[in-house]
Amino acid sequence: MYNYKFDFSDFEQKKNEELQIIMNDWILQVSTKNKKTIDNGNKTKRSPARCFAKDGFFPGYFNKKNKKILFIGREPRRIGGYDFRDTTKECFDERTVNNNLWWRRILYIVYGIRHNGELSFEKVKKITAQKILNEMYEKNDYGFACINISKYSNDHPEDWKSNKDLINLFLEDSELEKTHLFKRELDFLRPDIIITANLWDGTINEGFLDLCLPNKNSLNLKAITHNKENTAEYGKYKLCNKEIEFIDLYHFSHPCKEDKNYYYNPVMKVLFKNKK
Questions:
Q1: pTM, two decimal places
Q2: Which among 153, 197, 190 has a CA at the least distance from the CA of 51?
């Protein structure tokens, strides 16, 4: 059994320090804007700083040999006051990654991208998410980052639905039209591929979303269908003066969607113009 840890190189440590500056500026912003305590679902009220969960990248993300893959979700869960990666280690150590919808699908997708879309879903599934994770750990090369639109952690112990009010409160407190903090984060990460988790389903105020991922930067969005149902939207996205790949999937934790036809195959089809 592995005791997972993230061993960052000296270069990555410096990048972590740069990201920490952005996160600290963000905490200062929401704490200054909102002087009240927040109901984040854990039966107590906390300050904005205590609700804030920091984003992070994993070792290997800035490795020039890798495509920088950025996954963007709606909100962190039950990690208020922590760095996202600290609680991720605990999740990995629980040895339940194969049964964790969020991580299993992300690990499958990253593995498929790293193998240039040449592996069928069946081959990747046979390898298992746990073995993919173990290989990343052994090589100390994960090569992806996960961030959330909202940094206020939804800490409700039982209800796993997105907390719409909490997400939009965070974006209101962030005053992105003035601070441009989300843009600063994207400019820092400079991904080659962005994969989002059904952000445009109506949960998040579209005005706030446009401050995070401006519609004007989206180019020629198209839909992928399976059995006449849309499984993904994709296109090019302008970021940091270059065009990158952009894919919006169903939420990574959706309980009723197949890994193959709603996550893995759509991404491989977009990026490698084929599916196995």
A1: 0.94
A2: 153
